[in-house]
Amino acid sequence: MSKVEEKLAELGLTLPPVAAPVAAYVPAVQSGDLVFTSGQLPVVGGKLPTTGKVGAEVSPEEAKELAQICALNALAAVKSVIGDLDRIERVVKVVGFVAAAPDFIAVPGVVNGASELLGAVLGEAGVHARSAVGVAVLPLDAPVEVELQVRVKTA
Hints:
It contains three helices and five strands; from the N terminus they run αββαβαββ. The chain starts with a helix and ends with a strand. Helices cover 30% and strands 23% of the residues. The longest helix has 23 residues, at 60-82. By secondary structure, the chain is an alpha+beta fold. The chain has a single domain (3-152), classed as CATH 3.30.1330.40. Helix 2 packs across helix 3 (107-122).
């Protein structure tokens, strides 16, 4: 087990299986020393635990937890490409999308669920640049979607 996965276990979390794509793409691609994940939904056991807009059907607190699940799914996608999460040198960028009710403006707080998890698991290597974007709708009516750009140690 990698040190990253040991840290996840200390936090009471486990790395899930890679979420199956819902369209014509792959979960992650490596180009040189960078790994780019596709947008990861908060899929658990093959399905979304909840759907709807944040600030309407989904509370901000619940959405923040869903963003954490998205980050776990993104780490699983990274692992599927590089084999060992201990090869991560740095999370370079996180992009978080929040399906927001028209009057919901606390989008960055929701995406903090992903950012805080990455910092807790990877330490300084998990500190990243970020965009947090409110949108009208996400695939499958998911409340949150997160993608990562990660720099890895090359062999």
